[in-house]
Amino acid sequence: MKEYLKVYDVVLKVQGPVFVGSGQEITKKEYVHRRGEVIVPEVAKMYQFLKKKSLASAYEDFIMKDSRTSLTDWMRDQKITEKEIDSFALYKLDCGDAIWERRTQMQVMSCIKDAYGCPYIPGSSIKGMLRTILLFYDIRNNPQQYDRIKRDILSKLDEKSKRMNYLRNEIRRLEEECFHIAGRTDRQADMTNDIMSGMIVGDSRPLSMEDMVLCQKVEYHKDGTEKRLNLLRECIKPGTEIHFTLTIDQSICNLSMDYIERAIKCFGEQYYLMFSKKFPATPKPAENTVWLGGGAGYVSKTITYALFEEKGVEVTQRIFMNTLGYKANKEHKHSEDKRMGVSPHILKKTKYNGESYQFGECTIEWTQVS
Known about the structure:
The chain is an alpha+beta fold. The chain contains 12 helices and 14 strands.
């Protein structure tokens, strides 16, 4: 192994259910719900079974014409037994602490899986998480370096825009200021100057569907009240270990693991002080805590609070007000954020085994292997 390549075995231990979505939704016509579990059928196998039962035509009518009935109810109406459903199941998932109200069919968001149907975490998701943490840390350590970009952001805060385009140029400049320091070319904007190209993060080892649980989205408000939403996510269970390899090419990337460790500690401390501490009964995270995946929330994925510190609530509120439509702003009540002293004023949580968890919360540890 070349001396300038440092390789680490990294372990994320899941503290709060982790969701990295595939972008696909499993609708009420694509799963069967029964006694605390959801069965997702293997469609081709199920269809062959239905053909043998002379139910293929009825199934096609159900899929094409019936917008009200769920697959659960249709299977029951056709008197298909649990044993028969098990025979064409692709996988089953524990419903965890999700509450299924009578006649309610919840939306299920699928996690990302490999070609063999095994859940995993893409290296790009882990690297994106680390990139946000490192940018946050550099801004906290060198605030004067970002003063000009900060002023430019303040001057444009009241511009209305779609979320994908809002402050895009300013965010790009922030990243260039922090990471485009490799000095390979004279143009800072050139991607070849990005030191993070020297950090190679592999996909995680495959997980099993036994490591997964369905978690219901819960909005936790500043006054301690909760609101359950009819949305389920295929999540990695608390207690699961996610293993991946991280390689640092020191000829490109000058970041040591000691530096990354300090950045993670700073990020977790500030996340707690600026945001999660504002919600009742929210414990202080461990020093090596990170937040990964969908549902982890705005503050875990942005550097607004690093840039604006005590003004972070007001700036975040204005960002939401300018990127969300009238209906969404009215529904989420972002106009009240500043008065409440926190923005956003909802913490995204879920329930598992009777306990309340934040989505995506993990602890991280590593061992150098070469």
